[in-house]
Write a structure and sequence with these properties.
alpha/beta, elongated, six-stranded parallel β-sheet, 12 helices, seven-stranded mixed β-sheet, 351 residues
């Protein structure tokens, strides 16, 4: 054996083994270092596709929303990030114009018609009133919507696959039954809930239609007040308080959310718990919220918008449904009302 170790064959074998080891080591180093390069290359290829798909020009888009609030900001940011993931970066190859209807549905048609006759390549809408307006007023542009309760009720089409040829987007129907679950856990022996909504909003009509069936099945009385403007919300709560209710529910109604402070004041004056679909409004007051996340819906719609800008026909893109539930409970409001928060919600508490 000692003799074999000293032979030229043994020396050659050792050199071969060392060489193979060095090759394996350098291959591993190159593989790891290439991961970052491939991620960068992937992002760059997305931008290149966007640039080539639009002939290198700056793409012009418009976002139309009902009113400026935290929820709207989350929808807008989702749209912008979804577009960026598709290779369209605001300030580089993307121009985004924003229009606020200032909480007045009467302003929506003129805004949409203005963009429809402008040089924008795509109109994006946030909330049901803006989508409903686009379905009837837009004639020349493609439309992508998001943060909408029920696109079918808004007039986008007959189904998620059979829809207006120039429209696509993302709907997010609120978890009505889960909201009632939360109310019944926070308010034992819940018998009656009061709510308000604007009958002119298709989303609210659909949500209340579903809610009536859910509440009836649970044997909880649902008292309703129709409102026409956000300035009527406080009075609606005051009237509801006289109907022996145990909780106020503010649904995903744009008019009610616009007048949310009125609901908070009315509920506080009457020492009635207030629960809302809109978690972005809970910082403005109230006991709890359970609804859908606006950012994920906006992000999904932004990616759809990117596909349209790259040449996809909206008619070929089915309407999507994105529901990411959010829930939170205000610890301070619970203490003021004497509400005991079940331990299962310990991870959902806000100050």
């Amino acid at each position: 054996m000692r003799f074999f170790e000293k032979t030229a064959v043994w020396a050659a074998l050792k050199r071969l083994a060392m060489g193979l080891g060095l090759i394996a080591m350098f291959s591993a180093i190159l593989l790891v270092s290439d991961l970052g390069h491939r991620k960068t290359a992937s992002a760059a290829s997305g931008a290149a596709r966007a640039q080539s798909g639009t002939n290198g020009r700056i793409v012009k888009t418009a976002i139309v929303y009902f009113a400026r609030d935290v929820g709207t900001d989350q929808c807008v940011q989702g749209l912008i990030d979804g577009l960026k993931a598709s290779g369209f970066d605001e300030g580089k190859n993307l121009e985004v114009r924003r229009a606020d209807a200032q909480g007045e549905m009467i302003n929506i048609p003129a805004i949409l018609q203005n963009y429809d006759s402008s040089d924008v390549d795509l109109i994006m809408t946030i909330t049901t009133p803006c989508l409903a307006g686009a379905c009837s007023k837009v004639k020349h542009k493609s439309v992508v919507f998001t943060c909408v309760t029920d696109p079918i009720a808004a007039g986008a089409g007959k189904s998620h696959t059979d829809h207006l040829p120039f429209v696509t987007g993302v709907g997010s129907f609120p978890p009505v039954s889960h909201t009632l679950d939360l109310m019944q856990k926070l308010i034992p022996e819940l018998r009656a809930v009061g709510t308000m909504y604007n009958p002119a909003e298709a989303n609210s009509v659909k949500e209340l239609t579903v809610a009536r069936e859910v509440y009836r099945a649970r044997r909880v009385r649902l008292e309703e007040i129709a409102i026409a403007g956000s300035n009527e919300v406080l009075q609606a709560v005051q009237i509801l308080a006289g109907r022996n209710i145990q909780a106020v529910w503010v649904p995903g109604d744009n008019t009610a959310i616009e007048g949310y402070e009125g609901a908070v004041k009315g509920a506080k004056d009457e020492r009635i718990p207030l629960i809302t679909d809109d978690c972005s409004s809970l910082d403005r007051g109230g006991l709890a919220c359970l609804g859908v996340g606006f950012y994920p819906a906006g992000m999904a719609a932004g990616k759809l918008a990117g596909r349209v800008l790259l040449g996809a026909n909206p008619q070929d893109l089915p309407l999507a449904e994105v529901v990411v539930e959010q829930m939170a409970i205000s610890r301070s409001n619970a203490e003021q009302l004497g509400v005991t928060i079940p331990p299962e919600f310990s991870q959902n508490l806000r100050p």
